[in-house]
């Protein structure tokens, strides 16, 4: 899935959280709490009962006032990658295939989390339920992670709302949640995303579409069949209808972006003709999701 050169690039990255969530064990991420690591944070006045070993004797010698040195605590961050594995993701060719693209994106985010010492969980949201990997932490889990993601296969109709709500209720540690999906779900997506956010997740929606879905290379009298429901739709596709389709697609994406913006979620529209490593190494870093 990755070559050695790409892994070296990913090694230098870390996932960014607007608010660092309290971890369960020491990690490699700076916390908002004060603790016992070697990273200096601040000073405060000495109060009776403080540990004299934390007194800064150099400051005391200069100012003849006792100050306690505060240090940064370090903690791990919970990272959740939620991958849509419904049949509608099984579309496109070669590197532009939506699910293959989504697998590489999920693997990249997962590897970055493992390399940074974060606590990673990956879920494949499928019609018959959920396939899960993790929680895991550390580079030693890289090969099992890649094997799990590689083995996922898209199929069936997934109720995205139901899957996201169920995950929000059952997962024990909120943190960063990356939802990778084309959002083609008859039941919608809003309640599921709201459910995640309501449980304390910082949500990022990576909305994947293929180039053919953005600008269909079709014309004439057609019978279009929904790949998940099997429902047919007879259409006559000409220049006017193509323009209307593009207008409604843009409106749909604008509605999703407005919903996410209103609730403080991150929304990233992605067309799969964008190289996945360019998305990770440039676009997500520019948006402040990766540093």
Helix/strand-derived category reads alpha/beta
Q: Which series of helices and strands comes N to C?
A: HEHEEHEEHHEHEHEEHEH
Number of strands: 10
The CATH architecture classification of the largest domain is 3-Layer(aba) Sandwich
Side by side, the strands of the main sheet go 5-4-3-6-7-10
| Tertiary shape | elongated
Question: How is this structure best described in words?
Answer:
- This protein is of the alpha/beta class and 291 residues long.
- The protein has two domains: 29-75, no CATH class; 76-286, Rossmann fold.
- It is built from nine helices and ten strands.
- The strands form three sheets. The protein has a six-stranded mixed β-sheet, with helices on both faces. Strands 1-2 form a two-stranded antiparallel sheet.
- Helix 3 (98-115) runs antiparallel to helix 4 and helix 5 packs parallel to helix 6 (190-198).
- The radius of gyration is 23 Å and the shape is elongated.
- The relative contact order is 0.15.
- The model is unreliable at 24-38 (pLDDT under 50).
Provide the descriptors you would attach to this structure in a database record.
Rossmann fold; elongated; single chain; 291 residues; six-stranded mixed beta sheet; alpha/beta; two-stranded antiparallel ribbon
């Amino acid at each position: 899935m990755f070559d050695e050169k790409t892994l070296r690039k990913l090694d230098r990255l870390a996932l960014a959280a607007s608010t660092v969530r309290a971890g369960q064990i020491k990690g490699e991420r700076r916390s908002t709490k004060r603790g016992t690591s070697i990273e200096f944070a601040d000073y405060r006045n000495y109060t009776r009962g403080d540990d004299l070993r934390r007194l800064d004797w150099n400051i005391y010698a200069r100012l003849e006032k006792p100050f306690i040195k505060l240090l940064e605590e370090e903690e791990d961050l919970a990272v959740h990658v939620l991958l849509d594995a419904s049949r509608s993701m099984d579309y496109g060719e070669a590197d532009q295939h939506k699910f293959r693209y989504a697998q590489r994106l999920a693997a990249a985010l997962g590897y970055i989390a493992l390399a940074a010492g974060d606590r990673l969980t990956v879920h494949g949201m499928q019609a018959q339920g959920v396939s899960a990997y993790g929680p895991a932490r550390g580079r030693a889990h890289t090969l099992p992670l890649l094997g799990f993601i590689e083995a996922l296969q898209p199929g069936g109709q997934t109720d995205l709302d139901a899957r996201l709500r169920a995950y929000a209720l059952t997962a024990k540690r909120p943190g960063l949640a990356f939802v990778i999906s084309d959002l083609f779900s008859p039941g919608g997506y809003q309640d599921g995303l709201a459910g995640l956010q309501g449980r304390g997740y910082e949500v990022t929606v990576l909305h994947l579409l293929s180039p053919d879905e953005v600008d269909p290379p079709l014309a004439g009298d057609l019978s279009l069949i929904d790949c998940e429901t099997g429902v047919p739709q007879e259409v006559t596709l000409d220049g006017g209808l193509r323009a209307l389709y593009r207008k409604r697609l843009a409106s749909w994406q604008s509605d999703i972006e407005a919903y996410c913006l209103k609730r403080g979620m991150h929304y990233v529209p992605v067309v799969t003709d964008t190289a996945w490593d360019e998305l990770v190494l440039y676009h997500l870093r520019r948006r402040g999701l990766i540093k």
